[in-house]
């Protein structure tokens, strides 16, 4: 039997936690499990130290107003493909709107089929705004631009030094005063402390790193920008469209991992406004690297739900482990299967930049264009999706309108949901919903039954990360009521929590006892509210509610997710089955009928097989103390 260690980090919650933490849409606090590679490099540039408070910096305003008034001649060397192409398009239009002269050199041939697609097909907007558009090879940039002079050059084309060096060398020899480079936030080395901030270690072998090093040596005034994922009209790389394609066709949205990975998705107008700030205030921007991103993160599940909300349609999210089903997540999904997001700290402090990205509103606009161009009616193949769904035994067409879990449209079973307090509640309800009492009664009886059985057969329970060194003094009913009161979660979350606990018990062979039931409750409720509630508190708040530390809350969450193989989705028939099961708690004279542990059901009621996740690590526990 593993040794149980009792931590000295005791959390005493008296009085109960304040509700002062604001509701955070799709916010997470658990740490990344990615191990950084050994290959890394620290660039010598004027970056903002990670540990310094942002308030310790002041925006550089030296001659800023005078510099902004100057009309600049700007050259944009633009890529002819990929997600970054739209940056040059928006940047050109913003500069023209601010009164600057703009020439955009697109790499390649104007007659290429690539030029028939956005944003290139919209270059007439640049010409109409007074800008110039030319095409050519960067190796012959001097010939292509013969006779033209520029104050500023932006390279939005190269990903390595071989591609950028001809442009940089020509710019230096031509007397260009400011050189800007579009790099990538992808060069950051994975970190255990997201988000990425300017000054974090980068991958030594990344091509963009060599470019940043070179221009820092060759130019007095240089600046590099590291964007992430972006949305916006004219983007020729799928981002939000990937989600829309599946949602409008009623298909499940397969997301690798837990779906709780954080990323950064910015509207391209924010990127162009940051670049314009650098052009109009070159002194402040000189020698710095800027994370060219919006200032808010979103979870992968959150992105799917926001896209569905923008489309006014339901969404069925299916999670999967790419390795276990032999799928390449890079080909199957448009985002990285990890925490990958950065913060624009330097731009805010040095340039006075402010982001305007508002995903809920921006995605509505994007969906309108999606429908306007007729993409919702196009024939699209989902071969990779189909293989993933087949391996998970999930049909390509959803078996459930996920709006049903809101219980608003499910009239046939409304009497059951009303009795449980899952619907028909208002802010004036002062009594706890009946589901809390029934769930606590159900769990309490199973705990007593299991502990009596263990005592009868004289067998000791095998401790897990969910076990405490002794049973908390707070009862199960008090604990459930406390969670409901201070988490503000929907009552339906407790039905899902019940289902999740059953799934974990079967997959991990855990015996429900008074030593583990509290941690299982707080963790399963946390996962349930993140899955079905539109807004919720973060892990730190749930830790206070549960009487544990935030670090332990994070560990419990990850262990639970792996234990149920990230299967958070519950179909309506399973949901109803558990509701009826709980209703039996209030049957004749309050006597509970013997309840066999129900089968683990998948998203379509299919029996699931789950592999056991062994945890051989020493079990360090923290006693729950709540007054």
UniProtKB/TrEMBL annotation:
The protein's name in its UniProt record: NAD-dependent epimerase/dehydratase domain-containing protein
Matching Pfam families: Cyclin, Epimerase
Gene3D superfamilies tied to this protein: Cyclin-like (1.10.472.10), NAD(P)-binding Rossmann-like Domain (3.40.50.720)
Keywords: Cell cycle, Cell division
A single GO BP: cell division
One example GO MF annotation: protein kinase binding
Family: Belongs to the cyclin family. Cyclin U/P subfamily.
Keyword Cell division carried by entry: yes
NAD-dependent epimerase/dehydratase domain ranges (all copies): 82-291
InterPro entries per UniProt: Cyclin-like_sf, Cyclin_PHO80-like, Epimerase_deHydtase, NAD(P)-bd_dom_sf
Source taxon at top rank: Eukaryota
Organism of provenance: Mikania micrantha
């Amino acid at each position: 039997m593993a040794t149980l260690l009792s931590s000295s980090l005791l959390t005493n919650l008296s009085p109960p936690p304040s509700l002062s933490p604001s509701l955070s849409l799709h916010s997470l606090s658990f740490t990344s499990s990615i191990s950084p590679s050994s290959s890394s490099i620290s660039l010598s540039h004027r970056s903002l130290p990670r540990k310094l408070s942002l308030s310790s910096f002041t925006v550089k305003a030296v001659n800023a107003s005078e510099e902004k008034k100057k009309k600049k001649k700007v050259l944009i060397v633009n890529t002819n493909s990929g997600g970054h192409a739209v940056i040059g398009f928006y940047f050109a239009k913003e500069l023209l709107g601010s009164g600057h002269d703009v020439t955009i050199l697109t790499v390649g041939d104007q007659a290429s089929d690539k030029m028939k697609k956005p944003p290139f097909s919209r270059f007439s907007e640049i010409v109409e705004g007074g800008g110039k558009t030319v095409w050519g090879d960067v190796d012959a940039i001097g010939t292509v631009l013969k006779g033209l002079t520029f104050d500023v050059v932006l390279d939005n084309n190269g990903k390595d030094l071989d591609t950028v060096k001809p442009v940089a060398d020509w710019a230096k020899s031509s007397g260009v005063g400011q050189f800007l480079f579009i790099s990538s936030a992808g060069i950051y080395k994975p970190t255990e402390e997201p988000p990425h901030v300017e000054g974090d270690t980068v991958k030594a072998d990344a091509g963009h790193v060599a470019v940043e090093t070179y221009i820092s040596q060759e130019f007095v005034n240089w600046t590099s920008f590291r964007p992430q994922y972006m949305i916006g009209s004219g983007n020729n790389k799928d981002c939000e469209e990937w989600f829309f394609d599946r949602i409008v066709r009623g298909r499940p949205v397969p997301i690798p991992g837990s779906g709780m990975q954080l990323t950064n998705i910015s509207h391209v107008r924010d990127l162009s406004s940051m670049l314009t700030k650098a052009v109009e205030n070159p002194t402040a921007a000189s020698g710095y690297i800027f994370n060219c991103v919006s200032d808010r993160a979103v979870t992968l599940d959150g992105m799917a739900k926001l896209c569905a909300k923008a489309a006014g349609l339901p969404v069925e999210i299916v999670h999967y482990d790419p390795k276990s089903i032999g799928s390449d997540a890079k080909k199957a999904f448009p985002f990285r299967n990890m925490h990958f997001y950065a913060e624009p700290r330097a731009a805010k402090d040095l340039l006075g930049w402010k982001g305007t990205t508002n995903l809920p509103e921006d995605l509505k606009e994007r969906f309108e264009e999606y429908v306007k161009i007729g993409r919702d009616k196009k024939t699209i193949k989902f071969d990779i999706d189909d293989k993933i769904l087949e391996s998970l035994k999930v049909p390509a067409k959803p078996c459930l309108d996920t709006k049903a879990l809101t219980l608003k449209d499910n009239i046939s079973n409304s009497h059951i949901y009303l009795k449980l307090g899952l619907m028909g509640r208002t802010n004036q309800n002062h009594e706890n919903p009946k589901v809390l009492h029934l769930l606590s009664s159900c769990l309490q009886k199973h705990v007593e039954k299991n502990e009596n059985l263990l005592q009868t057969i004289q067998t000791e329970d095998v401790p897990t990360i969910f076990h405490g060194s002794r049973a908390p003094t707070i009862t199960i009913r008090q604990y459930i009521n406390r969670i409901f009161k201070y988490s503000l979660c929907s009552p339906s979350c407790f039905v899902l929590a019940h289902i999740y606990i059953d799934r974990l018990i079967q997959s991990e062979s855990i015996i429900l006892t008074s030593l583990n039931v509290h941690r299982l409750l707080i963790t399963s409720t946390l996962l349930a509210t993140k899955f079905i509630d539109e807004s919720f508190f973060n892990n730190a708040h749930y830790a206070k509610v549960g009487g544990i530390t935030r670090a332990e809350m994070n560990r419990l969450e990850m262990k639970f997710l792996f234990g149920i193989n990230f299967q958070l989705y519950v179909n309506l028939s399973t949901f109803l089955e558990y509701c009826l099961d709980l209703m039996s708690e209030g049957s004749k004279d309050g006597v509970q009928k013997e309840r066999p542990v129900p089968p683990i059901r998948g998203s379509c009621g299919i029996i699931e097989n789950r592999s056991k996740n062994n945890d051989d690590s020493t079990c360090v526990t923290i006693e729950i103390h709540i007054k």
